[in-house]
Design goal:
It is a single chain. The chain is built from 15 helices and 16 strands. The chain has helices at about 15-35, 45-55, 60-65, 85-90, 135-155, 170-185, 190-200, 210-215, 230-245, 290, 305-315, 335-350, 365-375, 385-390, 410-420; strands at about 35-40, 45, 65-70, 75-80, 100-110, 125-130, 160-165, 250, 265-270, 280-285, 300-305, 330-335, 355-360, 380-385, 390-395, 405. The strands form three sheets. The protein has an eight-stranded mixed beta sheet with strand order 1-5-6-11-10-9-7-8. Strands 13-12-14-15-16 form a five-stranded mixed beta sheet, sandwiched between helices. A three-stranded antiparallel beta sheet has the order 2-4-3. Helix 1 (about 15-35) packs antiparallel against helix 5 and helix 5 packs parallel to helix 9.
Length: about 425
């Protein structure tokens, strides 16, 4: 147990970090172009924030949250998502104070107790954005374009954008009654979770992953039949904006997302080759969330992107970056008398921005040369007592095996010249 990570968690090893850094750099670069600024929230919050924000009738709150009592007997939950945390930070720090639109993005670990599978871990990583204090469909279209631009910049192809409107407090009750009337004859066939949702939150019946429930839900009434004038106009304008931007999308009347705070726009971007876990990004509008957790009435729109799933998609399309450049110089010490000069030279070269390595254990020359070769070093500097006595070292080009002596004071210039 001590030598195994907990089930559903994963170490990101040095060889993999290059790809993660690449992905995060793209996320930050595109976010900045759209005017979004980074927010970092605590890894855990008071449990009530997620119960009120996400909704008691969701799988996340009912089954998946990591919740515990701290030593002060307070109920604490590791964040299962970050929109509620962002909304809490927005209220706590009065980011609404100047009346301006607030654009935030985040990158971090989330936690859900779920069955681990490819692209779905118990500790997983999300990138997300939140655009607060703007009610119109233009903001919806912008965050959708932001998500698509990130995936396009990463080079991903064969993506599918699905959109829907999940209505609002005015039109959703009537739709709930239609759903109950539709599902009532099938109640005995539904899974235990859906039978529980039937009275509490019938909209969740459309989101069940149970194959039988999913099949029954296919012919359920469409929410579009019940949208109020405001929601219908909002959705029509969103489609007009996406059409004008040349964005291809598919209308999906069963797309409701898994969290209760969504209103009006809901969307999802899928990469079908990933199979059952094909969603790489999804989100929507949440006009009542900030008010629900105790803040002023504030409309909002956002999405989250599952980074493990994006990584799987990049891997499938061979879009992950190549290994980082090897070190530019490996320094070999021919004895204890030369180690001090090796150490000093390594420090000077690194200060000049070069990637430099040497054997901290001070092994034999044969051992050091093996390590130099394994490191992929372009050049090796050999420090021998005799050469140092003349104020020189031996420079070996590992590609051609050519060697020459270089004066100590010329090492930096020589390697900078080779680097060109």
């Amino acid at each position: 147990m001590l030598t195994t990570a907990p089930r559903g968690t994963k170490d990101i090893l040095p060889g993999e970090v290059l790809a993660w850094n690449y992905l995060e750099n793209v996320l930050r670069e595109v976010s900045a172009r759209y005017g979004f600024k980074e927010l970092r929230t605590p890894t855990f919050e008071h449990t009530e924030l997620f119960k009120r924000g996400i909704g008691d009738a969701t799988d996340v709150v009912d089954k998946e949250m990591y919740t515990f009592l701290d030593r002060g007997e307070r109920s604490i939950t590791l964040r299962p998502e970050n929109t509620a945390s962002a909304a809490r930070a927005y209220v706590e720090h009065k980011l609404y104070g100047d009346g301006q639109i607030t654009k935030l993005f985040y990158i971090g670990s989330m936690f859900r107790y779920d069955r681990p599978q490819a692209g779905r871990l118990r500790e997983f990583h999300q990138y997300g954005v939140e655009c607060l204090a703007t009610p119109g469909p233009v903001a919806d279209a912008e965050v959708i374009l932001l998500a698509l631009e990130i995936l396009d910049k990463l080079g991903l192809k064969d993506l599918q954008l699905k959109i829907n409107s999940v209505g609002c407090k005015k039109c959703r009750p009537a739709y709930g009654e239609k759903l109950r009337a539709y599902f009532q004859p099938h109640l005995a066939e539904l899974c235990e979770d859906c039978r529980s949702r039937f009275d509490r939150n019938p909209l969740r019946l459309l989101d069940c992953k149970n194959p039988k429930c999913h099949e029954i839900a296919k012919d359920a009434p469409c929410l579009s039949e019940c949208l109020c004038d405001d929601c219908a106009e909002h959705f029509a304008m969103l489609k007009q904006l996406l059409d004008g931007a040349g964005v291809k999308y598919e209308l999906d009347s069963n797309l409701v997302r898994g969290l209760d705070y969504y209103t009006k726009t809901a969307f999802e971007i899928q990469y079908p080759p990933l199979g059952a876990q094909s969603s790489v990004a999804g989100g929507g509008r949440y006009d009542g969330l900030v008010e629900e957790i105790g803040g002023p009435a504030t409309p909002g729109i956002g999405f989250a992107m599952g980074l493990e799933r994006v990584m799987l998609a990049l891997e499938k399309q061979n879009l992950l970056p190549a290994e980082a450049d090897a070190c530019e110089a490996y320094l070999v010490s021919m004895g204890k008398g030369t180690l001090s000069q090796v150490f000093r030279t390594a420090a000077e070269l690194r200060h000049q921005g070069m990637k430099v390595e040497f054997d901290l254990a001070g092994g034999s020359m044969k051992s050091q040369m093996k390590k130099a070769n394994k490191s992929g070093a372009k050049n090796v500097l050999i420090f021998g007592d005799e050469e140092l006595g003349r104020g020189c070292v031996t420079l070996k080009d590992m590609a051609t095996s050519e060697q020459k002596e270089v004066a100590l004071e010329n090492i930096i210039n020589e390697l900078l010249e080779v680097k060109k």
